[in-house]
Specification:
Elements lengths: L2 E6 L5 H14 L4 E6 L10 E4 L4 H11 L1 H10 L4 E4 L1 H6 E3 L11 E6 L10 E5 L8 E5 L4 E5 L4 E6 L2 E7 L2 E4 L10 H16 L2
Parallel strand pairs: 1-2, 1-3, 3-4, 4-12, 5-6
Antiparallel strand pairs: 6-9, 7-8, 10-11, 11-12
Helix pairs in contact: 1-5
């Protein structure tokens, strides 16, 4: 069975995320097809979904305008895995603390945009992440931080006691850009580990 993965391609590192998904799939001996999604109609066919970074106000506006926002919400409500990174995390949240961002309200978290500073303040850090055996080389670029989470949200990693990776149901959200390394373990954790657990429970 081929797993269909959709990367919402309105902004962000689309090809890098596609490569990471394919690497993670190969590691599981899983055939995969990655769709770059720029319009509505394709998301319902996806087994897993990725919402990349970019500029959160622009992403949220385009998702609403194209009708993809409703499809993403339906995807999550159906229990299908989604990975939301950086600006994607902001858009997925309940509260971006910015009226210009129309959030999807699928992740019970409040986000502070650009919490780690501007582009010049970008940095890398080896993060201990729940579910991973070894630290992950996280790349932070104009990164948001998670101010607060609901009781159903599991914090997977923090920097200076502030959450930067979380999981709620089928959603994994990160403040950092996991696609900017050759390490595909975040994509594995978000997609293939979740799929494997679901299949074992059927």
């Amino acid at each position: 069975m081929t797993l269909t993965a959709g990367v919402v391609a309105v902004q962000g590192d689309v090809s890098e995320h596609a490569d990471a998904i394919e690497r993670a799939a190969r590691a599981h001996g899983q055939e995969s097809e990655v769709l770059e999604i720029r319009e509505s109609g394709l998301i319902p066919d996806c087994d897993v979904l990725l919402l990349p970074g970019g500029e959160s106000t622009t992403i949220s506006r385009l998702l609403q305008r194209t009708g993809m926002a409703e499809e993403i919400i339906d995807h999550v409500e159906a229990g299908k895995p989604m990975l939301a990174t950086c600006a994607g995390l902001i858009v997925a949240s309940m509260d971006a603390q910015d009226d210009r961002v129309e959030t999807l309200n699928v992740l019970d978290a409040t986000i502070e945009r650009n919490a780690f500073g501007r582009q010049k303040d970008s940095f890398e850090a080896l993060l201990e992440i729940a579910g991973l055996d070894e630290p992950f080389p996280a790349v932070f670029i104009r990164a948001p931080v998670i101010d607060s989470v609901g009781e159903d949200v599991e914090v997977l990693a923090s920097v200076d006691d502030r959450p930067v990776a979380v999981k709620q149901g089928p959603i994994v959200g990160t403040s950092f850009h996991p696609e900017l390394t050759d390490d595909s373990r975040i994509h594995d954790l978000a997609f293939f580990e979740t799929v494997a657990v679901e299949e074992s429970q059927r």
